[in-house]
Amino acid sequence: MWLETWKKPLLQTINESDEYHIRLLNKYFLPFLSKECPHAFTDLIQSMANEILETKQTTSLQALMLCFNIARREKLLPDDRIPFALLI
Amino acid sequence: MGLPDNFFYSLLTNESATVRLGAFDLLTFHSHQKTPLSDPCLALIQSVLPSLYIEQDPEFRVEVLRSIRNLLLRIRASTHSAAKDLERRTSKPGDITEKLKTLLSSASSFVDWLVRFCGECITPGRTYPMASTALKTLHLLCEEGFLMDVDVVAKSGVLSGVHAKLFSEVRLRLLLDRLVDPYDDVARLAGWLVERIKQPERIAWGKLFERGTELCLSGRADKSEGGARVLRLVDQYSRINGITNVWENVWQSLVEDMKSGDLRRVAGERSLHGRLVCLRYRACQSLLR
After folding, report:
1. Looking at chain A, which residue has its C-alpha nearest residue B31?
2. Phi, psi of B184 (to 5 degrees)
3. CATH architecture of B7-203
4. Are the C-beta atoms of residues B258 and B266 closer than 8 Å to each other?
């Protein structure tokens, strides 16, 4: 329900609005959403990622990247650290 | 995934500054700082850094510098571990040793490039955003212990495994030129670096003193303030350059000009502003002592 209501306007704002709106979303709305509704936020990321994989279209890539960046900083994603010894 | 090869580059050069900076942050940040950056990642950073440094919005420039700091911390942590590992493995050559050497060599090339790039950003004619961001990057490099010819106590005990030199002949000249930059913070940032040079005897003090004295008398505020800054630097290194009594001479010339009573000459050819700024530096120094 949440996704159906918010996803489309959100993507539209990030893809089609001017810099001012994107900045407000990135600075206030998305971080707030990630803190207050972390599950909804991760659902949104998953949904956008699935859409990109299914449709092979990159229209929502910008929004995904912004959300992904916030999710990573908020530690909402699984820990992706790899021990240094395994990398080399 | 079926995405085009240049999808990340397109995000880094997106028309929205928020998207560009978000992508750059994603590229440089890692919660685990020891994770090294791959060669393609470093190449991508090199390709987009010039466009990020000309960002007009000061708030975005702060964000760029925050990402640069994360990048430097990551390079420092990863090369520190790699150098330590390499020390332990010197007696056992093998595949891992080669990988560690490659990692250190890539990071070293990148840091060298970054210092060169920052040098290019302060060449005459570059814009204020570019020069200011580049000088702030050089400050970050100093504070995190990457530059070996600058006398700065590193913020952290973790030492980088790679180092670079800041004061090449050209960059030293460029930094000295920036001491008289019309933008006060650019001049201050350049001055901070020059004041910490480990080999001050490399500076041509005689010429610098002459130029500083000449600029101090300029009728233009930016030039005369730059001249005052140069004279302060000369006085700071008086033990090395042998130029003493800088303040006394400035004060003396000021008194003589006032006593002469020729106000037209003082206003046109021997402006007071630079010399007064000069004496203000002296007063500040005395207060600090």
Report:
1. A81
2. -60, -40
3. Alpha Horseshoe (1.25)
4. yes
Q: Please answer yes or no on whether B31 and A79 come within 8 Å at the CB atom.
A: yes
Q: Can you list the alpha helix ranges (DSSP code H) found in chain B?
A: 7-12, 17-28, 39-53, 58-89, 95-121, 128-143, 169-177, 184-194, 205-216, 221-236, 238-241, 246-260, 263-268, 273-288
Mean pLDDT (whole number) for B190-209: 92
Q: Do A58 and B3 touch (CB under 8 A)?
A: yes
Domain ranges of chain A: 28-73
Per the structure block, which two tokens stand in for B248?
């006394």
Give start-end residues of each CATH 1.25.10 domain in chain B. 7-203
Report d(CA B177, CA B172) in Å as an integer: 9
> Checking phi first, is residue A2 left (phi over 0); if not, alpha (psi -120 to 50) or beta?
alpha
This model of the complex carries an ipTM of 0.79
**Cα dihedral value A50, A52, A56, A61, nearest 10:** -170
Assess contact for B250 and B279: CB atoms under 8 A.
yes
Rounded distance between C-alpha atoms, residue B257 and residue B265, angstroms: 9
| Residue with more model confidence, A54 or B172 | B172
CA distance B77 to B160: 7
- B35, B81, B82 ranked by CB distance to A81: nearest: B35
Residue-wise pLDDT for A3-60, tens only, equals 777 777 877 777 777 888 888 888 898 899 889 888 888 888 888 888 888 887 777 7
DSSP state of B216: H
Residues of B in contact with A26 (CB under 8 A): 18, 22
Helix axes of B128-143 and B39-53: crossing angle, nearest 10 degrees = 140
Per-residue model confidence as pLDDT tens digits over B229-265: 998 899 888 888 888 888 888 888 888 888 887 777 7
